[in-house]
Amino acid sequence: MAVSVLTAGAPVGAGDLRRRVWLVQLGFGALAVVACLTAPLVGSTAINFRQVFDPTIPFAENVDAQIFFILRLPRAIAGALVGASLAAAGVVLQAMLRNPLATPFTLGVSAGASLGAMLAITLGLPLGMLGVLGGPVASLVGALGAMAIVYFLATMRREGLSTNVLLLAGVTLNSLFSAIILFVQFLADPLQTFQAVRWVMGNLDVGSYSPILSAIPLMGIGFVVFARLPRALNLLTLGADSAAARGVDVLRTQRLAFLSASLVTGAAVALGGPIGFIGIIIPHLVRLLVGADHRLVLPASAGLGAAFLVMCDVGARTLLSPMELPVGIITAMLGGPFFLWLLVRSR
Amino acid sequence: MRVPSGSLLGVLGPNGSGKTTLLKLLAGLLTPAGGRITLDGHDTARLNRATLARRLAVVPQETQLAFDYTVLEIVLMGRYPHLRAFELEGPADLEIARRMLAATGTATFEQRMFRTLSGGEKQRVVMASALAQFEDSADTGGHGPDETQVLLLDEPTSSLDLAFQLETADLLRRLNRDRRTTIVICTHDLNFAAGLCRDLVLLRDGRIAAAGPTEAVLTPETVGAVYDVEADIRRHPASHQLTVVPLARR
Fold it and tell me: What is the distance between the alpha carbons of residues B9 and B26, in angstroms, rounded to a whole number?
């Protein structure tokens, strides 16, 4: 990776920032694509890259291509989408809350999603929608519901949006929902509890392209909003008043940031379960590589988040092969120590 | 209260007298419960944020960053109100940022991380960033020469040592004289205000207790009444500026 170009710090020439933005988008985008194309080659059955893309063999007879496109590629794409979403949402929320330790899950999303999925599993809800199973829909509803509660609490006390209330309400809601989840589990039968616990560990085995296709519109809307935010997010770093004094519509920025990050996180959780730590590891790594400018941090985090989760999932599939580990365990085992190192390192 | 264009005004008053509230009202960061605030006759509450930011800038008492930016990046943030939605800073913006760094004596810090600077250095960088808001690059159409530019400062001397206090006073004086920037300073530092400001407003309990030219306002009677102290005020023999020495609590 062209780290030396990217770590140059502030733009030293005018064309330089433009070049760095392009470099970052291309570089980290390519990283994600390469991860998606190589991950499906690895697995219990070895397949040959050349044969996968050999046009002379008809698809119906090309076993390698079938494994690649039908069995493994959807999983890699799901991983990339979930990884990109969680990392980008992490960047946006950290900037908006002016708190480098915030993650999409700090605000109660993961607990809300888990509660939704838990209820769907134990009650056997027939929530089929757009060909999607009940679990993902229920978890999306749970995630967005949690976000709505937190947002309502943060805006009810006074004009504007209190980021402190947002953060504290999110943490509290997380514990409250976790308690309700335990209560539901206590009443549920062991098989349902087992299913729910497995869901919470995160799983990218989506089985087909259809869950991906249902998640893409939600993520797409979120990312279109993300694209408008970076410059205002840079200024929010100075504090709400200083940003406002430089011409930023602070309330609008906070609202857009929160709503788009919620949407993207909800869609990601519905697709892959509440996979932890991506939203904090990736943005911090990226800031070490490209600096703090969100015009670079946001696209770079999306690309690196995608590649990172796809690679973690390869680990999940192969480490204890033929057994499969839930990918959330891998990201948490990497993320936990990283998070602690981060705490100690920062002053 | 009226601040004529080109003023160099100090706002003084004890803790809790409403200095910072007044500053935030002037900056459009708070909406007045009653009355209105106008800039060149325009109601600031109705002006677009970016339009206002091109003519009015704020230097807060302290700036703490959530993430590590370089000094140049911080100064370039002052260009926000001049850029369109997806526009990146161009050569003109960079030139402006460098000019403001030079004007505030911080050019040598350009590539340093803001976090690593001392309190006084940070403040001068933030001032450079605020000044960058006023500068017009050719493509934004610009504003007329008679449009007022207002710089609001909250406790500018609180983290400055003596040398930088002199330098800051000098910089503000030059801005006011050469570019006719209207400057409003909220401060506890009576002697700093006495040496720099042409006019003063003394606040107490959210009301104006005294206002007018510095010599007229800064008397033992008014200062005593506003701050509840016995104060000795006289011209310093060397600097010829009014000097306030508090003697005792009333």
Answer: 13
